[in-house]
Fold:
Amino acid sequence: MKPSSKMSKDPAENVPRPGKMARRQFLLTTAGAGAASVLAGETAASPQEDPEAGRPPFPPSLRTSGGLLRPQQNLHRNLSDLSGFWQFQLDPEDTGEKNGWFRELPSPRTIAVPCSWNDLFDDAQDYLGAAWYLRESWVAPAWRGQRILLYFASVNYSARVWLNGEPLGGHEGGHLPFAFDIGEKLVWDRPNLIAVRVENIQTPTRVPPGGGPAGGLFTGYPATHYDFFPYCGIQRQVEIVSLPPVSIEDVTAITKIDRSTGIVEVKASASRAWNGTGKARLGEGDPALEADLHFRDGQATATLRVPGAKLWSPSSPHLYTLHLSLAEGGKTLDSYSLKIGIRTVEVHGDQLLLNGQPIFLKGCAKHEDFPINGRGLNVPLVVRDAELLKWMGANSYRTSHYPYSDEAMETADREGFLIIDEIPAVGMSFSDGDENIEKRQAQCLRDIDDLIARDKNHPSVIIWSVANEPSPGNIMARGGKNPKGVTAGTAFFTKLFAQAHLRDRTRPATFTSVQGGPREWIALADVACLNLYFGWYSLGGLLEEASTALGKELDSVHAELHKPIIITECGAEAIAGTHATPAQMWTEEYQVEYLRRYLEVVGQRKFMAGIHVWNFANFKTGQSIVRAQGMNQKGVLTRDRQPKMAAHFLRSKWKT
Ligand code: GCB
Structure:
């Protein structure tokens, strides 16, 4: 192991020395000693049993990587949205399954779907255990003869689903869609009863991990290994979906540019290993932009050439509609449409190229977070956030620390945001034994498969992120040093990057590294994404020294790795309305001064490929002594999206 640049080899040396302190070491210093003991000790979760252990195994769900397309309505497909009121009951003893709660809840109350449950009921605020959702729904008689799915856009974390008292299947992992084929179990002459058991117990084998011997960085209350509130529940839409018996199961559109001609390579799959002919068409009415798809065993490809193509970019996010259809005997069997953008992304030396030109990412990392709905889908907020990013002059954001809704991705395509798209692998360390690491790896690989399958056709997505701030050891334990952990992490990330490249050879893959984290890991990524907090977690109050340390760090990563570098996080907390001159930590002035220096240092370095401020808006966290008002206050906007001075400052720099 090469010692990380900012960590001392000797734990005893890990005391606050300007420029020498690793990112989180402040928690271990005199100032942070109290915090460290509270955070690492008393409230740290004890090793958890796998909450699914001992239950009858449920069949797995259909996943996007298995040919589950985002549902849509057209002449051949339909859907019924089950958003609205559901029955709900907490199950703290976890006896519901044994007692048949999938048929009837003994004492239900009403909940909204989609929504996190935590902010709705006082007794559910910090509750992460099992809870039940029930609701009835008719299935339209006109759908008889179709393939019928029950589709969930996101349930956090673990779901077990029943239909009319019969088990359908289960799914692990929040933030990505899954579904069940319900044709055999549904009834047509009365409403169908849907029951879902959900829990978000924090265990070391989940992604993100929680509890267990790995310890907890942000183990406030509720205890987590990550710095955001562990919202749970049915957080995006539930839909009953009808598909024709032979249907389009997957589409991949890869775009290339040949001078002024756009090339769209279409790969499609059809169900039932179908053999026949379909069509791929771009836009409306131009026969030149149409090609036959000859399906053999369910697979077909076609190439469309678009002379004088309007390329997709942040300043001109032009979208084309790609229509696919399957036909037999002059009759259309199925059709599916999606918006695509013609553009290329490449890494060339230390540059990130969009359509062959260097691009610079300016923006923020975000969270899906808002009072009351929590992490539940909030379409008005998606629209407002895009508006505010544009107001600031941002061209980019990261879906920290999990995949965002389809609606957010669609908005990014339409509005021209460049997205770093992240799986939920936040807070991972490599000190808790091979078995746990292997289980987390398996979940990460599934998440990579499912995320890429879901988002591969979005022109806005330019980079896949396979983790946020992994650490070799328990990040709380004296700088997280652990040579075995570095080696284990190297093997882990080699595998994750290989998977991302296997699933998508057209986009770079990265992870965002923690300040002081192993360079060996950054060397594996196509783009170096650095989360840097000089001037906050280290060198707090010392902005001059922080600028120097920042410059040195960027120069050294550049000299060593010579790949595009993006600062994917940097930020200082500011309680809105708190002021001081000269600037002091926690004031709006300090946040502005901090960001001013980061922008200056980055601006002086032509090799930099971007900067994302942490965070777009304040967001809810667990309660702890390092998170005032139960929030991370590094937002340049307040949680309700009002600008702090920092947002005006960024606008003055970015809005051209
Ligand atoms: C980070 C993490 C992010 C935290 C942030 C902070 O590096 O990636 O999840 O919220 O720092 O404010 O500490």
Remarks:
- The pocket of GCB is lined by residues 226-227, 401, 468-469, 531, 569, 614, 632, 634 (CB under 6 Å).
- DSSP finds nine helices and 35 strands in the chain.
